[in-house]
Structures are given as structure tokens and as C-alpha cells.
Amino acid sequence: MERSEQRPKSKGGRPAKAVRKEKQFSLRLTEAEFATVKEKAANAGFTFTMYLRKMALMGQVKARQNISVIANITGKK
Predict the structure, then answer these.
(1) pLDDT over 60 (residue 38)
(2) What is the Cα–Cα distance from 50 to 41, expressed in whole angstroms?
(3) Does some domain include residue 4?
(4) For the chain, does the N or the C end have fewer beta carbons within 10 angstroms?
(5) How far is 15 from 12, CA to CA, in rounded Å?
(6) Rounded distance, CA 22 to CA 16, Å?
(7) Rounded CA gap, 57 and 64, in Å?
(8) What is this structure's pTM?
(9) CA–CA separation, 53 vs 48, rounded Å?
(10) Range of the domain at 52
(11) Does 19 reside within a domain?
(12) For residue 16, is it within any domain?
């Protein structure tokens, strides 16, 4: 049972990103250090990885503003 029509082969997969992150590095932390960094990342509203990236590149992280917190402060809903 051969097909007489051949469909063009689809490349498939995820589309290419505009900026590809090609490099990676490892970091070893104690359990206490890991827990501290993870907690700081959560408090700032970032993922663990994004928090570490921002700290490495900028040396500081500004916490994301939560819309509900801003609404409570300003009295708007």
C-alpha cells in the first residue's frame, strides 16, 4: 500500500526564539542557601531561575508589583 501523493515533510517542533540562551552554568548551594534564594524569588514574584539571572546581571532585584496590593493601597478595585 504505497501512497501516490507525498506530503512535504513538516519541520515540526517549537518555533525558533528571537534570542537564544545558549550558555548554562551550575551552582551548588546548601539546603539552607537554596531555601533562602527560593523564598526571596517567591517574595519578589519571580521564578528561581529568573531571580538568579537578574541578580547575576544587575546585582539587585526589584519585586514585581501585585495588582491586588496596589489596589488595596490606592483604595481602587
Answers:
(1) yes
(2) 8
(3) no
(4) N
(5) 8
(6) 13
(7) 17
(8) 0.57
(9) 9
(10) 31-74
(11) no
(12) no
